[in-house]
Amino acid sequence: MPIYWDQFDWPSFATLATGVLAVGAALMVGLKQASIAHNQSVIIARQVAIAEADLRFQLFDRRLACFHALRTFVVRIAFEREIVNEEEFKAHVDVVGEAEFLFSPSLWKDIDALSLLMFDANELNRTSELDDDETESKSLNFGLNQSEIRELAASRIRSLRVAIHKETSPSALLDC
User: Fold this and answer.
1) Using one digit for the tens of pLDDT, what is the confidence trace for 110-145?
2) Distance separating alpha carbons of residues 118 and 125, to the nearest angstrom
3) How many other CB atoms are there within 10 angstroms of residue 164's CB atom?
């Protein structure tokens, strides 16, 4: 069908131009909305990343508090040779119980083993409270004297510290 340009009058042109402009305007609005939606998805992705990082740092703080409580407990029993009462031991058991859910199974087993060693060391401190010669008395379950317990406790705390740092340091948490 041929177009007769000589019969193309102003009302026809206005109708055609209005239609083209309406389609163009709708296209512009659609593109702008798509751009806004994309920007919103980028913002949401960043908010999710921030929330994840915040949770990781909260987990790190809880793990660090647990490690510090464990280290303080070990120092008191193995190095300062304090006798820890039942209430303090229950508080320590709660910390170790929480550690089961904060750390990987292998780290928790190491923490639990260290706690058992400290239980033995505490009992040894009780039995040898009046005895100055720490090489004579041996712990019940591990068969270690005070100096051997100190060496083993120090070694385990160092290895736990390294393992915990590798697993839970802020830089490692951000890499997840």
Assistant:
1) 888 888 888 888 888 877 765 555 445 666 666 778
2) 10
3) 23
